């Protein structure tokens, strides 16, 4: 086309030809060509314009803020919410510190995406969601811009008391993981627990939740009825209640009111020395009926412990508690005896019972336990009682030292805690049982756990006793006590626990 125009232009300007005016003619032609080109004189088709997306995909919220410090044990994913319904592009290359992670849309939010995070303590992280990784569900041309998040995890907590022993006396990985968590929290927060309503269930924990909207971190189950199991009302071979609690994220605690027959062959059982002919010292003599009963009952308990172990469940274990009873009184009398048969024949026999059980469990392959021994600690009155250190089985057989207190003030809690920690400096100290007390025929409530903590009684955990008909929980604490405990920032509840499996 341009050639034709130039030819016509030549005929239109004859005066420019043959008169030495070729340069002028060329300038005119070039100007004309430029004009025609700028006016779109090409025969080529114009490209289709890029369509404008019908929606805009923008970030509305994120579960981890820029620069945040998070707990590696409790944070397992990042949630992002967008302005419209979205989906994750098949080509998405989302990375966490350079490693690809797979994001999925939330099942309960069409505008949300969840990104799994596998975090380590004390680490800096950068997560990148490249542009185009998130697209609108109804318009694939609408994509979210790049999202970049920098955050870090908290450093591994160090125990307040560095002298606390770091390893268990005999524990597998699951037990050690639970112990490590307890040790990390020791002196920083107290773990909440409640006694089960005996019959292998979680009834009282459910009552606490109904009242406070929070579950205690742990439930303690008692093997008190193992001699009757299996029966239509109690079956320890069925670990379902305990597994359900563990699967929900709770800590499992175990103890044993070790019942014995009131006499050889009797079906009536008891723990009280005055109600039985069962002698602790005879347990250690092969061939005695006491020896046979002792090992028969241990075998039943071991069978259940191994089931729990196979299910990946670790637990604290508190047998033969409150062994000394009143036996450490400085002035001996008819009433200065042990409260339970396992302590009635004295400290040496008692310690042999403990080590016999410990070694038998170990021989049978039980490794999922954290062993708690319960001290009487002057029975709260150093002027009247001696310390019960003679009853202590030894560091090689004990992981944690507990104390059972009822009706104590915050100041009394502090005194007990301080004395016991000084006596056992390498052990965590726990409030193994607590509840109201009865003194001079009057009920005395236990101090609020928040007051105990603030006073300085930094127990590893507290475990509230059961079946007292108090308030709505049927425990030995009032509703007001539970509400104070479960909203206290120093108390660990089940929802605050990391994964311990």
The average pLDDT score comes to: 91
Distance between the termini: 82 Å
Name the overall outline: elongated
Question: What class, by secondary structure content?
Answer: alpha/beta
- Enumerate how many helices there are, as a single number: 12
Helix content: 25-40%
Q: Strand percentage, roughly?
A: 15-25%
Q: Number of DSSP strands? A: 25
Please tell me about this protein's structure:
The chain is of the alpha/beta class. It is about 25% helix and about 20% strand. It contains twelve helices and 25 strands. The protein has helices spanning about 1-10, 20-40, 175-185, 205-210, 240-245, 280-285, 290-310, 340-345, 345-365, 410-425, 450-455, 480-485, and strands at about 60, 70, 75-80, 85-90, 95, 100, 105, 110-115, 125-130, 135, 145-155, 190-195, 220, 250-255, 260, 270, 315-320, 370-375, 400-405, 430-435, 435-440, 440-445, 460-465, 465-470, 490. The strands form six sheets. Strands 12-13-14-17-18-19-20-23 form an eight-stranded parallel barrel. A hairpin with a 7-residue loop joins β15 (about 260) and β16. The longest helix is centred in the middle third of the chain and has 22 residues, at about 290-310. The model is unreliable at about 1-40 (pLDDT under 50).
Which short descriptors sum up this protein?
single chain, alpha/beta, eight-stranded parallel barrel, 25 strands, 27% helix, 21% strand, elongated
Show the helix and strand layout.
Elements: H1 2-12, H2 22-38, E1 59-62, E2 69-70, E3 77-82, E4 86-88, E5 95-96, E6 99-100, E7 104-105, E8 112-116, E9 124-129, E10 134-136, E11 147-153, H3 173-185, E12 190-195, H4 203-212, E13 218-222, H5 240-247, E14 251-256, E15 260-261, E16 269-270, H6 280-283, H7 289-310, E17 315-319, H8 341-344, H9 347-363, E18 369-375, E19 400-406, H10 410-423, E20 428-435, E21 437-439, E22 442-444, H11 449-455, E23 461-464, E24 466-470, H12 479-487, E25 491-492
Parallel strand pairs: 2-11, 12-13, 12-23, 12-25, 13-14, 14-17, 17-18, 18-19, 19-20, 20-23
Antiparallel strand pairs: 1-3, 3-8, 4-10, 5-6, 5-9, 7-8, 9-11, 15-16, 21-22
Helix pairs in contact: 1-2, 10-11
């Amino acid at each position: 086309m341009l050639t034709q125009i130039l030819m016509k232009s030549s005929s239109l300007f004859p005066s420019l030809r043959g008169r030495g005016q070729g340069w002028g003619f060329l300038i005119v032609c070039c100007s004309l060509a430029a004009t025609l080109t700028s006016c779109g004189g090409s025969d080529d088709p114009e490209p289709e314009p890029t369509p404008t997306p019908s929606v805009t995909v923008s970030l509305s919220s994120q579960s981890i803020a820029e620069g945040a410090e998070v707990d590696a044990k409790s944070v397992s994913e990042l949630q992002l919410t967008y302005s419209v319904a979205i989906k994750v592009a098949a080509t998405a290359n989302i990375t966490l510190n350079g490693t690809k992670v797979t994001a999925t849309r939330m099942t309960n939010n069409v505008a949300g995406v969840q990104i799994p995070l596998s975090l380590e303590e004390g680490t800096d992280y950068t997560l990148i969601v490249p542009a185009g990784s998130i697209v609108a569900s109804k318009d694939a041309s609408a994509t979210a811009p790049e999202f970049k998040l920098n955050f870090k995890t908290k450093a591994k907590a160090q125990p307040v008391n560095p002298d606390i022993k770091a390893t268990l006396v005999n524990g597998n990985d699951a037990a050690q993981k639970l112990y490590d968590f307890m040790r990390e929290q020791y002196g920083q927060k107290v773990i909440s627990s409640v006694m089960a309503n005996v019959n292998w269930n979680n009834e009282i924990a459910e009552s606490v939740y109904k009242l406070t909207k929070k579950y205690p971190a742990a439930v303690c189950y008692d093997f008190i009825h193992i001699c009757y199991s299996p029966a239509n009302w109690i079956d320890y071979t069925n670990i379902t209640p305990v597994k359900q609690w563990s699967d929900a994220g709770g800590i499992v605690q175990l103890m044993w009111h070790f019942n014995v027959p009131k006499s050889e062959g009797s079906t009536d059982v008891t723990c009280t020395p005055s109600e039985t002919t069962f002698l602790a010292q005879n347990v250690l003599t092969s061939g005695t009926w006491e020896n046979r009963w002792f090992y028969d009952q241990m075998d039943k308990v071991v069978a259940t412990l191994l089931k729990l172990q196979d299910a990946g469940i670790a637990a604290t274990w508190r047998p033969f508690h409150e062994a000394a009873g009143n036996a450490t009184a400085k002035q001996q009398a008819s009433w200065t005896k042990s409260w339970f048969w396992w302590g009635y024949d004295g400290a040496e026999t008692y310690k042999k019972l403990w080590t016999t059980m410990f070694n038998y469990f170990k021989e049978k392959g039980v490794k999922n336990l954290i062993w708690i021994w319960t001290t009487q600690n002057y029975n709260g009155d150093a002027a009247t009682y001696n310390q019960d250190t003679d009853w202590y089985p030894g560091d090689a057989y004990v992981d944690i030292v507990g104390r059972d207190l009822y009706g104590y003030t915050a100041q009394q809690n502090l005194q007990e805690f301080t004395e016991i920690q000084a006596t056992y400096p390498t052990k965590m100290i726990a409030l193994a049982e607590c509840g109201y007390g009865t003194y001079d025929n009057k009920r005395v409530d236990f101090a609020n756990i928040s007051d105990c903590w603030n006073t300085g009684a930094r127990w590893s955990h507290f475990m509230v006793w059961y079946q007292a008909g108090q308030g709505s929980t049927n425990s030995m604490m009032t509703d007001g006590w539970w509400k104070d405990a479960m909203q206290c920032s120093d108390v660990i509840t089940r929802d605050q626990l990391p994964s311990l499996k």
